[in-house]
Design a protein that fits this description.
CATH class: Alpha Beta
CATH superfamily: LigB-like
Shape: globular
Largest sheet: 8 strands, mixed
Bound molecules: 3,4-dihydroxybenzoic acid, fe (iii) ion
CATH architecture: 3-Layer(aba) Sandwich
Number of domains: 1
CATH topology: Protocatechuate 4,5-dioxygenase, Chain B
Strand order of the largest sheet: 6-3-8-2-9-1-11-10
Mean pLDDT: 98
Oligomer: single chain
Strand content: 15-25%
Low-confidence stretches: none
Length: 278
């Protein structure tokens, strides 16, 4: 059976793509952010996952407001990136893993998560940039399975539901008949709000408490309703649900290998974490 080696999470901000394309990693504005990644890459070079399952939220590239699935799973052989209008380079296609995708889909539907299945799926900055940050080579060396959680248009799934989705995805991976090693990733957050009266809102205290909870008390954030999470983290900070799904997939115990937290990049409090599965 397949093995889950661990979990990764990162913020996803379009301007990171521009900074990487321009080689600004050592620039004083960017350095404290990019310095968060080499220790996670070092862990990856030891853990050597073959496949990564990525929880992220699409921002209008593949799903628009007219048709918005709560949960959607990619089941394609390849995922294309496309221009979202941020003025950043489009990255080369990412290889899929249809066999694991369909195994996850079958398990999720069996567990009463009625997901949308996508045999074609465009992937946006929330998928491409964290992969590029953890695997910075010319093309991504691991196979991928994208899983979208809607955090763009209300109603959003609860934190408890996202955690349980992650747990079900973890069960699916561990029962996948394969010798491959799998990592799980969540992208988004941490606290940020891009629009409205509270644009620029950041909540460092909550972000750090959330990061602290992930190792030993992973269900901590499930006590909060979506409206409480928006209040505490901002309208886009609620993307931290992806981190929660990732942690759910790791099972009962996980060990923090590395973390970084830096404010701000663009309008966002950025976080990175690597957790090793037990
Ligand atoms: C920013 C953050 C996001 O999560 C996103 O999807 C787009 C932009 C930002 O801070 O600029
Ligand atoms: Fe986002």
């Amino acid at each position: 059976m397949a093995k889950i080696v661990g979990g990764l999470a990162s913020s996803h901000i379009p301007s990171i793509g521009g900074a990487m394309a321009k080689g600004l990693e050592q620039d004083p504005y960017w350095k404290p952010f990019f310095d968060g990644f080499p220790p996670a890459r070092k862990w990856l070079s030891r853990a050597k996952p073959d496949v990564v399952v990525v929880f992220y939220n699409d921002h209008g590239l593949n799903f628009f407001l007219d048709k918005m699935p709560t949960f959607a799973v990619g089941a394609a052989a390849q995922y294309q990136n496309a221009d979202e209008g941020w003025g950043i380079p489009t990255l080369p296609p990412f290889k899929g893993c249809p066999d694991l995708s369909w195994h996850i889909i079958n398990h999720l539907v069996d567990k009463e998560f009625d997901v949308v299945t996508c045999q074609e799926m465009l992937v946006d900055h929330a998928f491409t940039l964290p992969l590029k940050l953890f695997w910075p080579g010319a093309s991504c060396p691991v196979l991928t399975v994208p899983i979208c959680i809607n955090t763009v248009q209300f109603p959003l799934p609860t934190a408890a539901r996202c955690y349980r989705l992650g747990q079900a995805v973890g069960e699916a991976i561990r029962t996948w008949d394969s010798d491959l090693k799998v990592a799980v990733m969540g992208t988004g957050g941490l606290s940020h709000q891009l629009d409205g009266e509270r644009a620029g809102f950041i909540n460092k205290k909550f972000d750090l408490e959330f990061m602290d909870s992930l190792q030993d008390n992973p269900a901590w954030a499930t006590q909060f309703s979506i409206h409480e999470l928006v209040e505490k983290t901002g309208t886009q900070g609620v993307e931290l649900l992806m981190w929660l799904a990732m942690r759910g997939a790791l099972g009962a115990s996980a060990k923090e290998i590395h973390r970084n937290y830096h404010i701000p990049i663009s309008n966002t409090a950025t976080g990175v974490i690597a957790l090793e599965a037990a």
